[in-house]
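Example 3.2
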Amino acid sequence: MQATPYDDIADWYDEIAPAISNDATLSPFLVIVGDVAGQRLCDLACGQGILARALARRGASVVGIDLSRRMLEIARRYERDEPLGVGYLYGDAQTLDAVRDESFDGVACHLALMDIPDLDAVVQTVHRILRTGGWFAFSIVHPCFQTPGSEWLVHSDGKACRGVSGYFVERFWRSENLAGVRGKVGAHHRMLSTYLNALVAAGLQIERTIEPPETGERGRLHPGNREVPWLFFGRCRKGD
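Structure, written as tokens:
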């Protein structure tokens, strides 16, 4: 049985998932997805299923797919406790050999593309499993401001700003914050252009992007993210 880094932190991740996928992250994702009622959707790299459940509550038929068997166990437990009709499958987002071509009206990937080593393979797989005219929505930690060499700085007037270095060096890295997700499992840093060019090369037409500022309580706790975004959201379409 193939183990993943998320198997080791699955229970911890499930505890913090509501804080990670709160209104600051989940709401913009649902905005960029739009109306999903009656659609058959794939939540790719679904983790413990928080997005899959949100999509199902909005009237979609959802299949969640993940490489972490422990995460899938937790997701299925939620489905047993609150049946929403979400199905869960074990699978590698880079191949999805068990998924037929043109199976879905939409594919969602929430805060996971930076976890996956082969970006080109993932977006090509997304293109394959989407029906013609189907959409792909994704969110990532903003690669322009969250680099291996980035840090928060404070101006003399007390305003927070982001210092960034190493942007052009694409590599796997781990944050020094061992209490956070990136400190525990790491991430693949890529330039924003790398993400966008991979989508275009796979035949996915970019329709919309969002870079929301932090507001409310999180904005108060993280004032720097009122100045620079920490997340990037995008939506694409599979053309004819």
